[in-house]
Amino acid sequence: AVTTATMAPLTDLRPTPDDITGDALAGLSATPKRLPSKYFYDARGSQLFEAITRQPEYYPTRVEIALLDAKMAEIAEAVGPHAHVVEYGSGSGRKTLQLLEGLQDPVAYTPIEISRTTVLAATERLAEAFPGIEMLPVCADFTQPVELPEPAREPGHTLVFFPGSTLGNFTNDEAVALMRSMRETMGRNGQALIGIDLEKDTGVLEAAYNDAAGVTAEFTLNLLARLNREIGSDFDLDGFRHRAVYSRERGRIETFLVSQHAQTVTVDGRTFDFEAGEAMQVEYSHKYTDARFEDLAARAGLKVVNRWNDGDDWFGLRLLQP
Ligand code: AVI
């Protein structure tokens, strides 16, 4: 049971459930065909993503953790004391521990997550490690503004934490909309600490999304396995191959599932024809320059007030304010 002195009950803002069938049908009807990457993360997909973060070619997680370690004193100084830390995503991981340990007397911690069980499991683990920080988990869709629960101890301000360059999985317009919602959630004297993957050599980028062990390929194909299981589609997993390429023009890794031969797939009673070699788009992972990121932030009404990069300028943390 989740009953420690610092554990508040879950705030359930009842996010609209995903319409997987509707989203799959819409994406398969589009030209070119596409499927939304948010459906990668079922239980197996989340496991496979964890495995990706341990591959030698996938640098973002390792570099961000080292960056947080190296710069935590500066980050804590810039953030200031008594923050209500609001994490976008599950927050069970290493980076949350680093931040809550490193900040000056954070008052409360709120992970925001669409899955009730995930958000509760994450806060349960953290409650033990941080008995002095009030745990206020929220079940909600963080792409919309979120009315935050009020900590028992008055916080100095709200700090939104959005690590991992998850922002990069949204299109630029979606990223702006998300940061606008973030600005509303954090309030006038709030801040956001966002992890962003930076543009670099194409070989390094493409290797990170095409690891030699094939874990990323398995992660991508798991999307089709999930659809088959959950909405009764009949994708042939051997009939599609993972391909990830960097577009320097668009500043993003673009991941596709490529049909290996002409084939027909049935979803919810509707059929979709694939040509041999046809590429269905399944994920974007944007890689930012300072100019590109500052432009997106400005469109959302946010200013970059501090920036920290690793020594190679591979990954960055940005502190934003309205
Ligand atoms: C979760 N997200 C930031 C990862 C990324 O790098 O875009 C997802 C991923 N896709 C393939 N490898 C990792």
Task: Characterise the protein shown here.
Residues 23-321 form the Histidine-specific methyltransferase SAM-dependent domain. It comes from Novilysobacter selenitireducens. The chain is α/β, with parallel strands linked by helices and 322 residues long. 35% of the residues lie in helices and 25% in strands. It has nine helices and 14 strands. The chain has helices at residues 20-29, 43-53, 60-79, 94-102, 116-129, 172-186, 202-208, 215-231, 290-299; strands at residues 11-12, 83-88, 108-113, 134-135, 138-139, 157-162, 191-197, 240-247, 252-259, 263-267, 270-274, 279-286, 303-309, 315-321. Strands 1, 2, 3, 4, 5, 6, 7, 13 and 14 form a nine-stranded mixed β-sheet that branches. Strands 8-9-12 form a three-stranded antiparallel β-sheet. Strands 10-11 form a two-stranded antiparallel ribbon. Helix 2 packs antiparallel against helix 8 (215-231) and helix 3 (60-79) runs parallel beside helix 4. The longest helix has 20 residues, at 60-79. The chain is globular. The two termini are 39 Å apart. Residues 1-5 have low confidence and may be disordered. The structure holds N,N-dimethyl-L-histidine. N,N-dimethyl-L-histidine binds at residues 52, 60, 164-166, 168-169, 209, 216, 283, 285. Residues 52, 60, 164-166, 168-169, 209, 216, 283, 285 line the site of N,N-dimethyl-L-histidine (AVI).
